[in-house]
Amino acid sequence: MAITGDQSFLKQINRIAMIRLVRAQTGLSRADIAKQTGLTKSTVSLLVQELIDEGWLCEETVQATGLVGRRPTPLALGTERLALLGVDVGCDFLNVLISTLKGEILYREMRPFTNTAIDARLDALMPMLKSALKLHPAYRVLGIGFGIHGILSADARQLIHAPNLGWTHLDIHALIAQKLSAARINLPFYPMNESNAGALAESVFAQNPAHHSLVYLSMGVGLGAGIVLKGRLYCGHDGYAGELGHTIMQIDGPQCGCGRRGCAETLISQSGLSRLLEEKEILTIAELQRRLQTGDIQTQEAVNTAGRMLGVLLQNIANSINPEEIVLGGPLVDLGDALVGPAMSTFSASQGRFDTRATIIRISQAGLDACALGAAARVFEEMLQPGSAG
Amino acid sequence: MAITGDQSFLKQINRIAMIRLVRAQTGLSRADIAKQTGLTKSTVSLLVQELIDEGWLCEETVQATGLVGRRPTPLALGTERLALLGVDVGCDFLNVLISTLKGEILYREMRPFTNTAIDARLDALMPMLKSALKLHPAYRVLGIGFGIHGILSADARQLIHAPNLGWTHLDIHALIAQKLSAARINLPFYPMNESNAGALAESVFAQNPAHHSLVYLSMGVGLGAGIVLKGRLYCGHDGYAGELGHTIMQIDGPQCGCGRRGCAETLISQSGLSRLLEEKEILTIAELQRRLQTGDIQTQEAVNTAGRMLGVLLQNIANSINPEEIVLGGPLVDLGDALVGPAMSTFSASQGRFDTRATIIRISQAGLDACALGAAARVFEEMLQPGSAG
What we know:
The structure is a homodimer.
Chain A: H1 7-24, H2 30-37, H3 41-54, E1 57-59, E2 75-77, E3 82-88, E4 93-99, E5 105-112, H4 118-135, E6 140-148, E7 151-152, E8 159-162, E9 167-170, H5 172-182, E10 189-193, H6 194-203, E11 214-219, E12 223-229, E13 232-233, H7 270-276, H8 285-293, H9 297-320, E14 325-329, H10 337-349, E15 360-363, H11 370-383
Parallel strand pairs in A: 3-6, 6-10, 11-14, 14-15
Antiparallel strand pairs in A: 1-2, 3-4, 4-5, 7-8, 8-9, 11-12, 12-13
């Protein structure tokens, strides 16, 4: 839209633009920034100094080059003053971590937790948050992201359904606000879907995040997905975008917890594998790994079947959303080649004759921290929006 | 990014912002625009007058209200000076139309054309374009959009594959440039995919287009789709986004022209219906309609089956892309309730237990003009980007 004369707004978007520039191109100098923004060198110097003082940016050591003259000082994101707090509200565990603006994990407390009551779960989290905040007094924490294992409304205020926790229609934003207030934790906070968090963990801290588009698959008991388009989380009109686990891959297939039949989640998940193996309880990843290692043929076949379905799903994602990358995440990834091998060969075999797509498929590096790290990343993203608290 | 002191750039984005504002809210006054943009009234008056003189905007008649005092003059998009040229390069026909900025069709020449050679097709189009331009001397035509029935590269310079025309890997941008130059037509032009054009036809001329997100399905001999997110066409990383016709809905299903098996296109299209009815040639819509009208049971069943598959596809779109609207377009829509009825009942029946989505599903109003009208819409979209020729 058109530009108003509001000086503080202009200053804020210039600050944000500078942080984004340095994030995208570590090592930029003040002169580079002036060139790329069209701002005067003195304005850039002033704002960069302010951002350094506050901890958003830092100066890197100038490399001795042997050339005559003063080298321009390279700038980078600051990692010593500002931090992000990320929470995985989990299904059978809780995870709280503190990350730098670069996604380096400074602190982590992960603990098993099986009580699914929302109150008990949030109550258990508050002392964990207080410990995290207390242990890092040198850092200013910018906010808290909460990764929730369920579908949230598009405005992230309502939890619509969390099948594995038995939650439906909770006013999740108000609940967290109340618990934080009672615990006297006065920080901005952002509830979000777990798979969306995983997607942010893979994009916000990546090289050149603003140009990144990816789909993150969170494969575990269920199957979730998060979509990032040009560096922004894409949630759709009602918050259902990326519910790829509930796209139907097999008409009249196995019954899904959502009420449909043949959803991708019934085929590519611990639940799906447990059904194929005719187990009443959902098998743990450890148990599935043990059976694979002992050469159990039925388990090998079931994992192979799930892997082939995953390959088809990867094709469908490439042909509908066509992201730059698809990132495989969640505990199921720990089944390794037994799952990923058939997925990749099915993906390759079902390329169309004229496809010239170059979709990158890779495994997430964040492991069990993906959700909490992505919730932390969300805080950084919020701070880089005009009108934010940052 | 940050704002430079470039006055002409600022003027241009202010002009674009004003056209967009009036497009979104017909009837705004100059005072309303000043309020919404933060610009001074004199700046607004100056720019609005310029936009009226050029034909982008016009003044609507003030309604007599009986109240004392001068009423502010309501503004609207101009429809008498500027026009958009849209072309459907077609499979078995050619269509050239001129549209106003509001999507009103001023002129149309549609003719059957069966020669699939790209040269012959473009050669036949040039005199049609010249006639269209000659017949409307009062209008300044802003550019030409070309809707092409095939997959284009993300930069729309290369045609990758047009199965129904037998084209692969054509330098489509250069080919059109050469033909236009030879025909002495000196206008900016924009090749685009046919289904993407259909999606723009439904969004650019709609109420409040900037907030619109929709998926347009083009169902005919094949099955294409176009995606518009927040008013912008979304083509994905390599131009394959919206290739929903080639998402796999039935593992090991019917062979698809693309080399895969069980693609949505093999199930929901004239080709799919012809296969179900064991016809060697692809049945025309007229023939399918005739058989439905005479109560042919096999045809009724085949169309019902395709309709149910369409319902599943609609679910999958709602759960992966979650647009505000899904618009059903293309000749297959002319089969009416026989197709759309089972699609809608399957869509409703396969809602998940906890879904609170409110996806609107409706039939396109543009009919056979959808592609050419959308190609015209694309020209308007280009003019509303900073740095455009407009």
